[in-house]
Amino acid sequence: MKEHLKLSFIGIAAWWMLLLPFDYALFDGIFKLIQKPFTGLLKAMDQDLIFETDTYGTYVLVALSFLLGVLSSPLINRVCKKWKLSTTEVLRTILAAILFFFLFKYGWDKITKAQFYLPEPNTLSTPFGKLSKDIAYWSLAGSSFSYTVILGIIEVLAAVLLLFKRTRFLASLISIAIFGQVVLINFSFDISVKLLSGSLLLFSLIYSLSFYQNWKGVFGFSSKQIQLYDTRKHRVIKYLFALLVIADCIYPTLASRNFNDDQFPRLAHHGAYRVYGNPQIKYLFIHRQHYLILQSQDDLFKDYKIDTHIPHRYTTLDGEISCKWDESLVIIQNKAFKIKRIPFENLPLLQESFHLFSDEFH
User: Where are the domains of the chain?
Assistant: First the structure.
């Protein structure tokens, strides 16, 4: 790989990680502080910019990271020469750090079902044809505990393999497979993490290509054994970084004691309810993230953030709707309607099943 390309990729990867809008657990304040001058400058140029997943503002930030990365290459070159660092090893290290974080983060979230959680009652009650592709895929994946957890284990395993010099090339191949599948899913089902997944696939490819001698061996060409940069000091830094990443990923789990979101306690009246006597509203749902959702007779949905401080009574923040569970009533615009809970837990989608022979269920 040409030296100037290596230097540019080092800068791009570093600035990408610094400027990417992402919610960290322990280090969010540090990253937000670094990003603030850049987001502030961009907001001054365009007040409508939003820095969230796949927004125009995020694309601008990532484009800025590419520009800053290329402009930083002379400085990076000077630092590498002064400290006698191999640009190949610096590139590998920074890419491995990025891949390790996201592989472990999303792997851990899948293992604890923080990602691909069980579909909510309002999703289960929506006619299948009216679900968007991203919600449909997310709900189907979340309905299977084994599928989600096994995906998470594979991602965590790939992250661990990045820590050891003998398995880094293998880890790079697994990373390409993982992020290649994620990119395919995100683009095929229109899921809004295309920029992040596409970037991670690109970084996986660049990281793998940096092991060019290994690739020569794969295709039968003679290759010499590469002495990888792995001094004692380097190992200490590497494992310290890994511990910090692991701490950032598992802290929310430890703080909430939520090791399996499928079984984590919900609101007392979390669920789906049939509304009687209202010509506009057919169903009412209490969402686990403190939302009250109304489904109209035409299967249109409207959600409200609710106050849950009063036992057996939920009120929307605007005060328009309140629910009194002691009387099984919902009060909408000062009119009371009876409600009855629907046992959505018994739906076939939420039942664990396995059939070795198809004639057992066909």
Answer: 1-85, 87-264, 271-344
